[in-house]
Design goal:
The structure is a single chain. By secondary structure, this protein is mainly alpha-helical. It folds into two domains: 240 residues, no CATH class; 136 residues, D-Maltodextrin-Binding Protein, domain 2. The chain contains 17 helices and four strands. Strands 2-1-3-4 form a four-stranded mixed beta sheet, sandwiched between helices. The two termini are 24 Å apart. About 3% of the residues have low confidence.
Length: 390
């Protein structure tokens, strides 16, 4: 243990003298998050431009349009514009003035009120580049049509059991407002800076820590590790001490980012204990990759190249370059399968949960990043130890 602590302390002193650590690790993520905050505004929320063309003007069509104006629900993120014709709605979408449009045809209200098998049609026009607006509009329409189908099934079931006309008439009509309010309650409430603070923090964390792989390879080339290997110190203490120094630097980097963005941009990082646990497992995942990259790299240039390729790939598929709300499900699945993506999901889930966040809120990101870090660190350290004794 004494050798472990000595190696860790020595490496920590050397790395903290390196200005790259200060610039890349501490200032980098804060500067990028600040630029994003200035560009979008620290309190800017997602603004979805949606058009509704109500050609029916019935109570049911007005209820549908009212969903997009709900206070505390979709009204918080939707910039709604109502037009009189379907052509006007198409023009809005074609001109990219709106990301999606919902066209309510004439006769819609009567078809809904009939509770029979009269076809109920709603048209959704979308701009392929506006995935958020498309998701919101299609979600509202699908939920409302699903409600109609449910009411019709209940009506048919009651009729088949011999219910009276008065009982059938008492069945409630579908109302799109109540169930939809729950669906949008916690989906689109993060500002750009809220999202990019952890996103950029993760990317720069991996840059800082993974560049430590080049140091491992350099010390092997200069026989520093060989000299340590023939000392009374165990190999596990040497490798562990060096990884521990990187671990401490990673913790400091994340702590500085969280404190700075909380003070300057009022980023809501969520509950302290689950946040601290997620930071630890996230840094551990970066340490594991560092050990693995060190083990498979033969030169400093190779370590830097492999490290850069890994970092950029994880940043791309982990959602660090763009907000993933409304992204295709296949991309969201890939994101969740990467350590950076799982960590980012965990940080944003903590933000959304706020003060009510618990360990259960982020159990999967905690488990995934922790196990990923332990597994890769064990494999990388074992492979590198074999190289030290050759």
């Amino acid at each position: 243990m004494r050798a472990f602590l000595a190696v860790c302390a020595n490496d920590l002193r050397q790395r903290m003298r390196d200005r790259t650590i200060l610039l890349l690790g501490l200032l980098g993520p804060f500067v990028v998050a600040s630029v994003v905050g200035l560009a979008f505004g620290s309190g800017a929320k997602i603004n979805a431009a949606i058009v509704v063309a109500d050609l029916d003007h019935s109570e049911q069509s007005q209820q549908l349009a009212a969903v997009f104006r709900q206070e505390g629900g979709l009204g918080e993120i939707v910039d709604l514009k109502e037009v009189d014709t379907e052509d006007a709605a198409r023009d809005e979408v074609s001109a990219h003035s709106a990301g999606a449009a919902v066209v309510v045809p004439a006769g819609f209200g009567a078809a809904v009120a009939s509770r029979q098998n009269t076809p109920v049609t709603l048209t959704v026009l979308v701009d392929p580049a506006s995935t958020i607006e498309a998701s919101v509009a299609e979600g509202v329409v699908r939920r409302y049509l699903g409600g109609i189908a449910t009411v019709r099934l209940a009506y048919a079931t009651a009729a088949s059991t011999g219910a009276t006309a008065a009982e059938l008439e008492s069945l409630p009509p579908p109302d799109p407002r109540d169930p939809l309010e729950l669906e949008t309650e916690s989906v689109f409430q993060l500002s750009a800076v809220d999202y990019f603070a952890p996103a950029m923090g993760l990317m720069f964390l991996y840059f800082t820590v993974l560049f430590g792989a080049a140091t491992f390879v350099r010390e092997e080339r200069t026989h520093t590790l060989s000299r340590l290997a023939v000392s009374p110190s165990r190999s596990v203490d040497i490798i562990g001490g060096k990884l521990a120094a990187l671990f401490v630097i990673g913790l400091i980097e994340m702590a500085v980012l969280i404190a700075a963005t909380s003070i300057v941009f009022d980023v809501p990082w969520g509950g302290l204990l689950p946040l601290a646990a997620l930071v630890v497992t996230t840094v551990l995942s970066a340490i594991g990759l560092t050990a693995l990259v060190s083990a498979v790299s033969r030169t400093e240039e190779q370590a830097r190249s492999i490290g850069s390729a890994v970092i950029l790939s994880l940043a791309l598929f982990g959602g660090q370059f763009f907000m993933t709300a409304g992204a295709p499900q296949v991309f969201l699945d890939i994101q969740a399968a990467t350590p950076t993506g799982a960590a980012l999901i965990g940080f944003t889930d903590l933000m959304i949960a706020g003060g009510s966040a618990t360990f259960a809120t982020v159990w999967w990101p905690l488990l995934y990043t922790g196990l990923f870090g332990l597994a890769t660190a064990a494999i990388g350290a074992a492979l590198f130890e074999r190289r030290m004794h050759r």
